[in-house]
Each structure stands twice: as C-alpha cells, then as structure tokens.
Write a structure and sequence with these properties.
three-stranded mixed beta sheet; alpha+beta; 3 helices
Length: about 100
C-alpha cells in the first residue's frame, strides 16, 4: 500500500519522464513544475511552459495528467498553467543546465 505522502514523490518521479518535444530535458528539471499536491484521489499540479504560445502545450498537459494518474490511488489530475512567475533559464536544475550546455 502506498502512503499518502509517497504519492507526491511518485508523481514527481513520473513527471521526470515528460519532455517538451523541442527540448531534450524533462519538464521537472526544466523547472516548469511549480507544485504537486494530492487531495484525496486527485493530483493538483501547477506548472508553466517555456513560452505562453508553446505549440506543444496540449501534448505536455495530457502527458502530465497521464503520468500523475499512473500513480496508485490517483484517479484524476487537475493541471493549472500559470505564467506567474514566468519561466526563465534560472529555473533549470543543475542536471538540465549540464544537459543543455549552460554550465
């Protein structure tokens, strides 16, 4: 049986398998995910995109929802897209900076 708090960690782990198709780094290490919460059997994810007019937005949100619902006990997922604060390179993880050649 998965503990309640472990579900957030498992969702984050799954989100590391979601990629922006134009960038070879997962959305979590890109710094696009601002928060992951679980209330009951619903995941709530607040995230941003690299640009407001991102052509892959629908694809990325669908993947986020799918990967969250892969976790045992998660039946639904609400994804909120925000641009406050706007994404910039400072949000990249160290791994992402290395991968993209920014270190």
């Amino acid at each position: 049986m998965i503990e309640m708090d472990d579900r957030i960690d498992l969702i984050v782990q799954n989100l590391k398998e979601v990629y922006d198709p134009e960038i070879p780094v997962n959305i979590y290490d890109l710094g696009l995910v601002y928060s992951v919460d679980v209330e009951g059997n619903e995941a709530k994810i607040v995230m941003t995109l690299t640009a407001p007019n991102c052509p892959a937005a629908d694809f990325i949100v669908s993947d986020v929802e799918y990967m969250a619902k892969k976790v045992e006990g998660i039946e639904s997922c609400k994804v909120e897209i925000t641009y406050d604060p706007p994404w910039d390179r400072s949000m990249l993880s160290e791994e992402a900076r290395l991968e993209l050649g920014f270190l």
